[in-house]
Design the sequence.
C-alpha cells in the first residue's frame, strides 16, 4: 500500500468551506502519480520511449464525509487487480482515523493512437513486488 499526504488549501474548498467534490479526484490522481514515481517508473519516459500513457477507464467513488480547510489528508492506494492491459486500484482519502472518500479506479495503457496497449513489464513487476 502506498501513502501520500495532501494538505487542504483554501482553493480546494467551496463556499461552505468543505473540499469541493472534484478535488478528491485530483488528490487521488496525485497519489497515483507519486506511487508510480516511487516504484521507479518515469511516466514521461514511457511516453517518450514507448509511446504509451495511462488513462482512467472507469471510476467508482463514494463521498463519505467532508474534509475542511487545513486538514492534513492521507491518500492510500492499493493494487486490487492486475491484468496485462489494466490496473485496478483501491484508493481512499482519510483524515486521521476517519475515511472521507473511497474509490476504485481502473487504469489502462494507451499507445500514441489512443488504442489499448499492454502495461510495461517494469510496472507490472514493480506492482507485483509491492
Sequence:
Amino acid at each position: 500500500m502506498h501513502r501520500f499526504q495532501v494538505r487542504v488549501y483554501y482553493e480546494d474548498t467551496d463556499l461552505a468551506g468543505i473540499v469541493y467534490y472534484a478535488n478528491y479526484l485530483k488528490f487521488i490522481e496525485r497519489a497515483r502519480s507519486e506511487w508510480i514515481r516511487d516504484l521507479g517508473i518515469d511516466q514521461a519516459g514511457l511516453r517518450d520511449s514507448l509511446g504509451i500513457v495511462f488513462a482512467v477507464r472507469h471510476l467508482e467513488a463514494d463521498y463519505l464525509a467532508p474534509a475542511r480547510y487545513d486538514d492534513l489528508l492521507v491518500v492510500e492506494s492499493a493494487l486490487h487487480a492486475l491484468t496485462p492491459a489494466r490496473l485496478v486500484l483501491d484508493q481512499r482519502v482519510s483524515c486521521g482515523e476517519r475515511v472521507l472518500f473511497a474509490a476504485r479506479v481502473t487504469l489502462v495503457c494507451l499507445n500514441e493512437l489512443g488504442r489499448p496497449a499492454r502495461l510495461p513489464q517494469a510496472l507490472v513487476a514493480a506492482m507485483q513486488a509491492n
